[in-house]
Design goal:
The chain is mainly alpha-helical. Helix content is about 70%, strand content about 10%. A three-stranded mixed β-sheet has the order 1-2-3. Strand 1 and strand 2 form a beta hairpin. Helix 2 runs antiparallel to helix 5, helix 3 runs antiparallel to helix 6 and helix 4 runs antiparallel to helix 5.
Length: about 300
């Protein structure tokens, strides 16, 4: 668990520093290079800084052990962090969209500098590398917050590609005296905004589902049922529900046992069910077993 926490925290800190540097570079290059798309992309990177900080706080809170007020642990802190990331994405997307639409209806002819082009290419490489690293790590350590942050990096990489297209077309318009191409830079900013908001909605939807304790579907709980059925003394599974708490799973299961055995024997069967589920499935952190008489 300690190793998992260290890896998750390192990934978050790495994202904070990378996004901070990119936001500053893209912001300066966007202003100097007269690019609305690059300035929009700089704001997107700045939102990544805040989201990575939220993820870091959520991961650290999720590692706290269960207490009387939180008997199921603090795992949902990661989902709260994920929800914060999604809200930030939507808010930033709205701001970028409003600015881009304003520029579309009142374009200001200007020559975009080549520096904007070089910065955006550099940004695409860095953001895609961060996505690949965090996505693989998040899947490996089963961290929804790290995975959400990874997709935030991917959305930034995609927005940078769109910004690259807008900047490139604007530069062509300036070079070959094609005024209509000046619209592609703010248009790229508008497309970036829509993508950012869509990504925020998608991530937020999943986070809300977990926060509302939606149980896992049959396909994901089937393996838990098979493990329970193999325990000696279990006659039938009456009910099995599993729900995620951040990076881990909590299971509630009702089993039927021989009605003629003693209470102590029934308790022993329940204890073996819990032990087997936790032993065979690393994502399971706790199991609550209710024993019924088999009829």
């Amino acid at each position: 668990m300690k190793s998992r926490q260290q890896k998750a925290q390192f990934a978050s800190v790495l994202g904070i520093f990378a996004n901070l540097i990119l936001a500053v570079i893209k912001g300066i290059a966007g202003v100097v290079g007269n690019s609305k798309a690059l300035v929009a992309d700089a704001f997107h990177s700045a939102s990544d800084v805040v989201s990575s900080i939220a993820v870091l706080v959520g991961i650290r809170a999720a590692q706290k052990p269960p207490d009387p007020e939180h008997p199921y642990g603090h795992g949902k802190a990661e989902n709260i962090a994920t929800l914060i990331v999604s809200i930030l994405l939507v808010v930033v997307g709205v701001e970028i969209l409003l600015d881009a639409v304003s520029s579309l209806f009142s374009p200001e002819p200007s020559e975009t500098s080549a520096i904007a082009l070089y910065v955006i290419i550099f940004s695409i490489i860095v953001k895609e590398a961060l996505f690949q690293y965090k996505k693989r790590l998040g899947d490996k350590i089963n961290s929804p917050a790290i995975v959400a942050d990874a997709w935030h990096h991917r959305s930034d990489a995609i927005s940078s590609v769109i910004a690259l297209a807008g900047i490139g077309l604007t530069m062509l318009g300036s070079r070959y005296d094609l005024p209509f191409l000046q619209y592609f830079d703010p248009l790229a900013g508008a497309i970036i905004a829509v993508l950012v908001m869509w990504m925020g909605f998608k991530i937020g939807k999943d986070a809300v589902s977990v926060t509302l304790e939606t149980v896992l579907d049959d396909g994901r709980t089937e393996k838990f049922g098979l493990t329970t059925e193999k325990v000696e003394g279990v006659k039938r599974i009456d009910l099995l529900n599993a729900r995620t708490h951040g990076s881990y799973v909590i299971i509630d299961v009702k089993i039927s046992v021989d009605p003629h055995i003693t209470v102590d024997e029934g308790h022993s069967i329940a204890a073996r069910v819990k032990e087997k589920l936790i032993e065979e499935h690393t994502e399971v952190h706790d199991v609550y077993v209710h024993v019924n008489p088999y009829h």
